[in-house]
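Hi W.,

Here's what went into the run:
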Amino acid sequence: MASNGALDARDRAAILSRLATERFDVLVIGGGITGAGAALDAASRGLRVALVEARDLASGTSSRSSKLIHGGLRYLEQFDFKLVYEALRERDLLVSKLAPHLVKPVSFMYPLYKKVVERPYVGAGLVLYDAMEGPRRPVPHHRHLTARGALKRAPALSPDRLAGAMLYYDAQVDDARHTLTVARTAAAHSAVVATRVSAVGLLRDADGIRVTGARVRDEESGREVTVTAEAVVVCAGVWTDLVHELAGVQAGYRVRMSKGVHIVVPRAAVDSNTGMILRTEKSVLFFIPWGEHWIVGTTDTDWSGDRAEPAATEEDIEYILAAANRALAHPLTRADVVAVYAGLRPLVDPREGNGSKPTTKLSREHVVDVPVPGLTSIAGGKFTTYRLMARDVVDAAVADFGREVPGSVTEQVPLLGADGLAAVQPAAGRLAEDYGVTRATVDHLLGRYGTLAEEVLNLIRADAALARPLAEPHPYLRAEVAYAVTHENALHVEDVLMRRTRLFIESADAGAGAAAEVSAIMGRLLGWSRRRRAAETRRYLDLIEAEQTMIAMDPGPAPDSAHDRALAAVR
Ligand SMILES: Cc1cc2nc3c(=O)[nH]c(=O)nc-3n(C[C@H](O)[C@H](O)[C@H](O)COP(=O)(O)OP(=O)(O)OC[C@H]3O[C@@H](n4cnc5c(N)ncnc54)[C@H](O)[C@@H]3O)c2cc1C
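Here's what came out:
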């Protein structure tokens, strides 16, 4: 029976003990969207599942994407019709049934500059794009706009050379929250989910052939235990080659890393009531509406540095600003940039051929491989298609179980918070009255937790101080920090500021000013001493300082004073 899947950080010792003592059908390595999806797919087939994630859920690529759930218009140009078709169907399933609280339609305007050539070309692409949609059609069809119509929706566009525009619809998501919700839904179906637990070795049977589990290390204590499983599934994104090395196997593909950078600018800096997609020399540039901000990106360059901390460079930021400014009437400047983040695409590079292809040309389709019995790995794909990736990798993993394993049912399994949403949304006003909070607070919570919002509201009922905002003017509440610990497995301040909330990319001080308060709330629940609380705050401040140093920004903007104040308070 499904439960509420609470991932309570206070249960860590019990979770580690379950890893060491139970025998699992499937052990998933990696807690990005692919691993969380695989855990849910396997658990909802009735299998005993464990998932180990070396750092935090979604701490790899799955919190650093463009946050679009989309077919990918540009893949049509690469004749990747299968990918676009599957992705659009997944988009529609997520918006209409599986995660309507998290995955929401968003419009994009595609400005046209060469009327005669471009309109028929882009128009035909969009006709095809819309035609590939599934039967649900939860997002509107595309429309043609005149130059005047385009400027009315996006006065920020420069009228120079503007010949008109196309308006089409896709969907967007908070990628880290979606990944967490998939992992929680897996836990609701009995999966054991452990974070800051790394796979450090693979176990083999007595003949040394079949993989039978993994040696894992608790990164908090350094303690190692063995986890036994009939099948191990590797969903390690850009770390996949390293896990293959751990197992001493050579898979049929390598993972090539392609870095993508985004900048975050205030909503007021670009006057538009729609997202935008601009054609660039190499690819496309998105303006994606994100609360009070725009996310603008991305880039696509080879990367061979640290997998955990891909760094944006001066050049990346300049490239994005220059590409954006080609279309804007009033240029964005460095002073507009609130935050910068970089992620690594795990692109599949088959061992033969392909070696020198630029990363923009590598397929975004996924590849599943079984390099030795008991070990199945998957890489490539897109966030949007995670459910299909999960289905395929679990199908391959259970193929030699020698017993009947049910097929994937995730098409029928709404994520936690989705069930009953239609009936809760109209009751938002009543909920606000019942819990003594504003309607805006209820809407904010419904948009992040769906029907689970009442679990957060109940924390406020028990302790009214938790109704206070965490970092004004941002909408996050102190209750969400507590909830992140008791239901979302947050173990450190960074988990809350970078992924449970998105203050790291939304706040000019990267959340520095809220770090001490987050540490205090977490510390009360997790029994941290005063010293530990200060250390946790400092750990976060050091982390964001390191990020800022890596970006190697111009001496330009002076160090943020809130950051300095926060640092001074704990040093
Ligand atoms: C810039 C950018 C923009 C993108 N935009 C979009 C988009 O808009 N839409 C879309 O559909 N897709 C997009 N993508 C692609 C999408 O984000 C990725 O395909 C997806 O997030 C990959 O998820 P993953 O789970 O495979 O990898 P990850 O999220 O990286 O997860 C792998 C996890 O494995 C863990 N791990 C590694 N080794 C071990 C070990 N030994 N033990 C335990 N755990 C381990 C890591 O810590 C990590 O958390 C984008 C990608 C990038 C980089």
